[in-house]
Amino acid sequence: MSNENHPRETDLSQSEERKLDLTPVQPQEVRPQGKSSLIKSVGDFFGSAFGGGKNQDLGALMEEFTSEMTLVAEGLSQDQDRLNERCARLEARQTESEERLHQRLDDVEEDLHEQRDALRDLSGQIKDRTQPLEERLDKAEERLKRAENVLAEVKKAEAKKARGNEKWGGTLRQVTILAAIVCGAWVLTTIINKFF
Fold first, then answer.
1. pTM across the whole model
2. Which domain holds residue 31?
């Protein structure tokens, strides 16, 4: 610290040096002879500690000390009051934030219940709508199975008919070939008889 920035501290330290005798104090034997001698010895002790008795009145020193301590105590009290006010504001903010948070949580919970109820209703509606469709689907599957069975029977009947036609078709083919041979022989015979 420089003397230019804090001239008051320098003045105080110089005045304190003038007021106080900084020479070490020798302990004195205290022999109390009663209540008044005890007070006197305590006063002597403080007197020797605060200036060794050089032109300083102990009462004035005590008054100065008391006024300075009162000033310090008032400053500390003001600081404490400011801290208490700040704590009160912070507590109020925290309480307000907690209330808002609780309100938001309640709103979210209420929305969640509403959505859950809406989903249950929607699920019930879907079941109500899909149940007839499932019944129709079951009926359609039954019809399809019956149609497949009928188709299989028709295929069997067609295969049986085709086999029956093949029998007659083979015999018919053979008869046709024989008739063609007979006709061819007759035509040849007629040509030969006519020209020869």
1. 0.34
2. 7-98
